[in-house]
Every structure is written in C-alpha cells, then in structure tokens.
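= Paired protein data =
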Amino acid sequence: MAESGFSLRLRIQSCDVEPALAVAEGPEVEVVFKGVRAPGVGVFRLAHPTTGHPVAEPGQAVRQGETVGILQVGLCLKPVVAPMDGTLGAAIVEDGTVVGYGTPLYQLA
C-alpha cells in the first residue's frame, strides 16, 4: 500500500516453534487491609484543626461509624470514620499528610 509518499509493507513469516510449557502457578493471594482508609482527597488530621484535641488515640476501642480522624479540604472538614468495630492502631500516615481516596490511615485489630 502506498499513499502520499508513505508505504506500508506487511510480511508474514512462518516459524515452526514448539509451544512453551505452561508454568504451574500457585493460587493468587489477596491481601485484605483491615483498617481505616481515607474517604477522599485532602489533608489528614489526627487532631481537630479548630480545637487541637486528638480525635482518637492508638489503642482505643472504636465502634463502626465512630470518627477517628479528620480530612481537611480547604475550609471543609470531613470525618474519617471506622468501617468496623476494633482497636485502633497507630496512624500509618503523619498528621498533615496529603492523602488520596482509599489511602490506608490506621490499622484496626
């Protein structure tokens, strides 16, 4: 095929190649994160920006829906809540870190 100074040539080459042996693979292991994830994009706060008081402490027993942190987006403050009952581990990210949706914030035991 040739058009406006360009050309295209397809060449099919036959090869007698033996098929590769299939390598046995083990079952895929899915790692499930049991903890608190960021509900959106923003700055993660361990303490409430207006009061300075910590929202939750590591080792604290928390219930599903309980606020364990704050996500700050400009002047808007959004609660970060525990998705299940458990014991709150240490924060995975530091206070003031910009996080994205789904970023792991705390482990829950």
Notes: The beta strands are 2-3, 6-7, 35-37, 42-45, 61-62, 67-73, 76-81, 86-91, 98-99, 104-108. The first strand starts at residue 2 and ends at 3. Residues 33-108 form a domain with the OB fold (Dihydrolipoamide Acetyltransferase, E2P) fold (CATH 2.40.50.100).
